[in-house]
Amino acid sequence: MTYPHSALFTGRCVFCAGGQKTVENGGKLCYNVSAEMGAAVRRAEIGDHTGTGRGKDDTMYCTRKINDDYTWVGADCRRLAMFEGVYDVPQGISFNSYLLTDEKTVLFDTVDSAVRHTFRENLTHALAGRELDYVVVHHMEPDHAAELADLLRDYPRTQVLCSAMAKTMIGQFFGPELAGRITVIKEGETLSTGRHTLHFVAAPMVHWPEVMLTYDATDKLLLSADAFGCFGALNGALFADEVNFDRDYLDEARRYYTNIVGKYGPQVQAVLKKAETLDIQMLLPLHGFVWREELGYLLGKYDLWSRYEPEVRGVMIAYASVYGGTENAANVLACRLAEQGVQVKMFDVSVTPAPYVVSDAFKYSHLVFASATYNMGIFVTMENLLHDIAAHALADRRYALIENGTWSPASGKKMDALLSPLKGWSAVEPVLTVKSALRPDQAAQMQRLADAIAADVKAEQTEEDASGEGKHRYVCKVCGYVYEGDELPADYKCPLCGAGPEYFRQEA
């Protein structure tokens, strides 16, 4: 359906008083439409805006209630092959938007244009004929803000709440026409919607500079923008406890974090410290599942990832092989490590997209890079991977190298030149040099490399175990927060949900 207020319209606006207002500059949007006309436009849109021919009465709505006052009005998308043009999403992705219906109505973020029809249908249904009072823009990236201008056209009374930098970005994306509809809010400011009080929290560089979060002190929930998100469509579920998250989604949550937010570990740490001061019982991210149970589990993962602490004491081997010689050397090393009880994960970087390898580089404590020499340098897929790892600011890793070259092996020295300057990175010696193919007389060299890596992995594990000796784990039964110590204090309060010691169970 084409609207008279669309960018295709030129001339005088038929909705403005007496048709006297000129739509300037080739048809930029006019926002002087009356509330009555805006409602008429929405009614017309509901009739058939998806191309399905469905009428208002028989339309099925894909919304879900979060609690009495909050409704999810987002949408899944499984047609996008690449998210942001670089991250493949074979399981799809969700674009989350949330509506608060109180004395005032508040929409938290819009969606990507790929799912605009479902979103608008869901929003109209959830509003149930009410006006939309506010749109809170947490993050201006178009996968969350693409529908803002169209939404404001159809809801002429709606005011936008956002950070000062977000206001600037709105002008960059949509032009200056929306400026009069925007109220800039600062950290620490609040908004009462009736029963609910909203507190605004700055979260710069998680993962754009304009980002803010909203804490609802009434329902004790945090609308967390891109933080705590996950790749993958929701498939009808909304809450993380409705799926086997650890089995089916943890890897995608890590891949989402490490590739999109991973560079900004210190900024994420700053947000986590702010979260510690809030009584949070629910997390509402812009991608992925809503968390209402075991929040400590997810917050713990974010704490590890943002401090660049590995989840697993083990080895990730990434190799780039042309004719199989480098691949064989990597496989032999993996066998020698597994024989010593070391957990190993392997990737052929010419086959596996770099974002998957980057994600597991965050996961594992020790990394091995094996590359053929190519044009007197690093094989191109390996070189791209190492630059990607460096760009995501991964810190504090131990690494080992295997190089291959038929007449002049050079990849080892060049890989080391890229890795050694990274913060907290250090090499496990020796470097293994292969000339064309691994020879039987190199068995001892290979064993020395495997022994050195295995000993390093086990030494770190031993140190970790020793540091926790005599300590116990106490898990909050309300939110999942984990307390580690000799004994849970008698007056202890969970920093996430405020539960007392009677709500903690000791893990065996």
Looking at this protein, list some descriptive labels.
Metallo-beta-lactamase, Chain A, 14 helices, 4 domains, Rossmann fold, 31% helix, alpha/beta, globular, 508 residues, 7-stranded mixed sheet
Residue fraction in strands: 15-25%
Taking pLDDT < 50 over at least 5 consecutive residues as the criterion, the unreliable ranges are 1-58
Helix-strand category: alpha/beta
Helix content: 25-40%
Number of helices in the DSSP assignment: 14
Order of adjacent strands in the largest pleated sheet = 3-4-9-10-11-12-13
CATH topology category name of the largest domain: Metallo-beta-lactamase, Chain A
Shape by Cα distribution: globular
Measured between the Cα atoms of the first and last residue, the distance is 62 Å
For the largest beta-sheet, the strand count, sense and barrel status come to:
7 strands, mixed
Give the number of DSSP strands. Answer: 28
The CATH homologous superfamily of the largest domain is named: Ribonuclease Z/Hydroxyacylglutathione hydrolase-like
Mean pLDDT: 87
Number of domains: 4
- Reading off the top of the CATH hierarchy, the class of the largest domain is best stated as Alpha Beta
Give Rg in angstroms: 27 Å
CATH architecture verdict of the largest domain? 4-Layer Sandwich
Summarize the structure.
By secondary structure, this protein is of the alpha/beta class.
Any overview of this molecule?
The strands form 7 sheets. This protein has a 7-stranded mixed sheet with strand order 3-4-9-10-11-12-13. The radius of gyration is 27 Å and the shape is globular. It folds into 4 domains: 1-60, no CATH class; 61-306, Ribonuclease Z/Hydroxyacylglutathione hydrolase-like (Metallo-beta-lactamase, Chain A); 312-466, Flavodoxin domain (Rossmann fold); 475-506, no CATH class. Helix 7 packs across helix 11 (354-363), helix 8 runs antiparallel to helix 9 and helix 11 crosses helix 12 (380-391). It is built from 14 helices and 28 strands. With 508 residues, the chain is α/β, with parallel strands linked by helices. The relative contact order is 0.08.
